[in-house]
Write a structure and sequence with these properties.
By secondary structure, the chain is α/β, with parallel strands linked by helices. The chain has helices at residues 2-9, 14-29, 34-42, 75-79, 124-132, 156-167, 192-207, 225-238, 259-262, 274-287, 303-312, 321-326, 329-341, and strands at residues 51-53, 56-58, 62-64, 85-91, 104-107, 112-115, 140-145, 173-177, 215-219, 242-245, 267-270, 293-297, 316-319. Monomer.
Amino acid sequence: MYQIIKPLLFKFDPENIHHFVTGGLRIANRVWGVKPLLKSSFHVNDKRLEREVAGLKFKNPLGLAAGFDKNADFISDLAEFGFGFIEIGTVTPLPQPGNEKPRMFRLPEDDALINRMGFNNQGVDVVAHRLSKLDRKELIIGGNIGKNKITPNEDALSDYIKCFDRLFDVVDYFVVNVSSPNTPGLRELQEKEPLMHILNSLQQRNLKNEISRPIFLKIAPDLTESQLDDIIDIVGETKIAGVIATNTTISREGLNSSANLHNETGGLSGKPLTKRSTEVIRYLSEKSNRTFAIIGVGGIHSPEDAIEKINAGATLVQIYTGFIYEGPGLVKRILKGLLKSE
């Protein structure tokens, strides 16, 4: 069904159609009988899919990556498609509009997207309040946090602490995002010294609470091997839960789309990222002797893509662009594929 209507959806601006579809999903889920229908159509309930990672019990290892539901508007609706966890954000302390539009571009010849959204979100107070009202049951929710565009890097820690404190009671795990290419200077925080400062400070805050929250670090696929070695050292020294590999890439290598599209600035996601994200996962897993959890994301468009990342060392996986190109049925296909691969 989705592949039939996809050509029509793809005729419209990707950001506008995203809002249209998610808003329509919310309305549909208010209609009697729709939620049970979605559950029967998309959910795969099997004990063999359960995973325990960083002290959290996931009903299955497939999640929705950050960026799709930035403001925690549609968690209950999206959960009906069978995800084991959903990551909201990136959230910043203050609301911000993000970069100028247009800021998202489809590359259909490559099954890819380019976005330069710029952490557009309603601010941590709005998101925290919305999450506090949510009946999430067994669904795991992650909070992806970042700094405001106007905050200089030397003051970035303050922004991460504000988000961490405000979301602490309403999310199950945190993701420190220092790898988006769409906030000027943000990727400089991936360097060892500033990153150690941020993560150690959050961990100190974390351990003061009766219940601690697992902290993951989201990294770029464009890091060199020496930088990945630094990441392994940082995870070991700060004792955070693990890494999300990877964010979008600034590379445009091997694209088939017209030059006017792939010359757009921003982060590239989708199939062109499949190989590199898996390489990063494998490198981190092997070099660290699997001493920390890795959430694999980047170019997962099929069950085989998800299995490849798990075989490379990912404990959990996430989708985003694949969800847009392949449709909601991808969730069930991946989960069924994981069961068959056991």
